Amino acid sequence: MGKIHGRYAIVGVGMSPRSTNSGKTPLRMALEASRAALAEAGMHPTEVDCILSYHENDSCSGHWLATYLGTRASYYNDIYGGGGSTEVLIAEAIGLIEAGIAKTCLLFRSMNGRSGKRMGGGQTSRGNKVYGSPGAGFLVPYGVSTPGERYGFLAVRHMHETGLTQRDMGTVAVTLNENAQRNPAARFYGRPLTLERYLEEPYISFPFRKFDYCVETDEANAIIVTSAERARNCKTRPVYIKAITAHNATRHAHQYALPDILEVGGCFAAPRIFQDAEVSPSDIQVAAIYDCFTWVVLYQLEVYGFVKRGEAGAFAASGQLKIGGKLPINTAGGMLTEGYTHGMNNVIELVRQVRHDYEGASRQVPGCELGMSTGWGGPTSAGAMIVHN
Amino acid sequence: MDLEKPLPSLQDADALQFWQAAKEHRLALQWCSTCKSFLYPPGPACALCGAIDIVYKDIGREVTGSLYSYIITHRAFVPGFATNVPYVVALAEINEACNMKLLANLINCAPEKVRIGMQLRMVWEDRTPEVTLPQWEPL
Asked: For position A125, what pLDDT does the model report?
């Protein structure tokens, strides 16, 4: 996407209650999140003329959501997508507004991620029949199906090449857990974690232990995107989009055959996002780094140039990811400890930080004006966005 | 009840020659005539350059490799693997195929002995009378 500096804004964000067993349909949770986002923006549902969502056959359609919101959208699109889809849909919203097809877009992600379809278990075989992506027949018969297994090959190679350690991964888990202790709505609120406790857990799949995995959750999130012009009439402080991009690498099983298996989507998105935003990584004051796994955070710090190759572990260990450090990340606890809503909850926290919603509280990154989100899917897809207030 | 381990689909026409060769305990890999690369896993076109002039090449029965990366799964999520834990899955560069990588279980190797760079040989697991899988073991 070309130069869009400040012409589009996020004007409302909302969340449904978060739980392990919602007892609700994804549609009802999506309505709760959407109504919360509309309420804070001070918008009537009929002002939304576009609904966008992403799903993995575990959600509801935007058409249903529009029906029960009481709006009749001119455009909707439900994409099948994983991590990075929040950025992809915000980019789509901007494109639709730019083209005059829509004026105000509501994006949502809704999932009973704990009580319904769980992402972490891998679901590519039934009995002895493999189905799913092309190439799955070259992974699943070898006992490889879950994200933890698939990302492990990249993590072990990265550890081998750079000397990254399990303690470094543990530091990410502990840092984000500290953030969760400032967020009463986080799944791990009131359940602090030490590095010793992290290391006591047995491996689920080496190199990953229990606290390297994000926490599957029942939840819906919503985000409203509109033009800077319309944003001026909203109740919230607009968060302007400075640049946004997405990029794919090599799909699925082919990723493991690349000359360098660490060539992920973010390697392509990184130069583009900073070029378009005309800022450098050291300018970013608060970030939402996609954290489906602790290692994914550390690797992205290198991919996006926040640190040099091989320096992510030391950066985390020296406290630079904490509030008060050089790059505070996932200040609500992230998907590792707040809850996993497939990336959107991290973007919502980024918006709240850049708006200074927590002014006066220890959760606020003081004076932050420039923030960034990254999305990681597969690991072969990436989204990236830079925002400012 | 023991669940059976999953099998690759023999309905995938692009991969059929791979599995037919495996049944004879031979490795056959696709080769892209445009970018001069071996391809893995098989597909309808070259995943590196998009060319469609791809052919199968016979690598033979004696295949060796060098371990590039691996995982050790301690909790089985795939049916049929519960009695195998902890099991190692190896991603190895094939010496006879320009270091193209192939993913398979690393068998006959204690998990604590696994080291990146270790030399491996390809062996064959006849999972059913119809389906044979290439596997790795220490050389």
From this structure: 64
Stretches in chain B below the pLDDT threshold 70: 1-3
Is A122's Cβ below 8 Å from some Cβ in B? Answer: yes
User: A327 and A287 in contact (C-beta within 8 Å)?
Assistant: yes
Q: What is the pLDDT of residues A182-236, one digit of tens each?
A: 999 999 999 999 999 999 999 999 999 999 999 999 999 999 999 999 999 999 9
Burial classification of residue A312, based on how many CB atoms lie within 10 Å of its CB (0-12 exposed, 13-18 middle, 19 or more buried) = buried
- Which phi and psi (to 5°) does residue A159 adopt? -60, -45
Catalytic residue among A290, A299, A304, A358: A290
Give the pairing type, strands A75-80 and A50-55.
Answer: parallel
Q: Is residue A135 part of a domain?
A: no
DSSP state letter for A338: T
Helix axes A294-303, A265-277, angle to 10 degrees: 50
pLDDT tens readout for residues A380-389: 899 999 999 9
For chain B, which domains are there? Answer: 11-61 (no CATH), 62-139 (2.40.50)
Select from B12, B69, B83 the residue whose CB has the most chain A CBs within 10 Å, as the one to mutate to test that interface: B69
- Mean of per-residue pLDDT scores for chain A: 95
What's residue A134's pLDDT?
73
Instruction: Evaluate whether residue A181 is within a structural domain.
Output: no
| Window 87-116 of A, Cβ < 8 Å to B | none
Q: What is the pLDDT of residue A126?
A: 66
What interface predicted TM-score (ipTM) does this complex get? 0.97
**DSSP 3-state of A49:** coil
Contact assessment for residue B71 and residue B78, using Cβ atoms and an 8 Å cutoff: no
Contact flag A257-B40 (C-beta cutoff 8 Å) = yes
* Chain B positions with Cβ closer than 8 Å to A: 3-9, 12, 15, 39-41, 43, 47-48, 68-81, 84, 86-87, 89, 91, 99-105, 111, 116, 127, 133
Judge if pTM exceeds 0.90. yes
Asked whether residue A280 is domain-assigned, the answer is: no
Number of H-type helices and E-type strands within chain B: 1, 8
Q: Do residues A66 and A76 touch, judged by C-beta distance below 8 A?
A: yes
Q: Is residue A384 part of a domain?
A: no
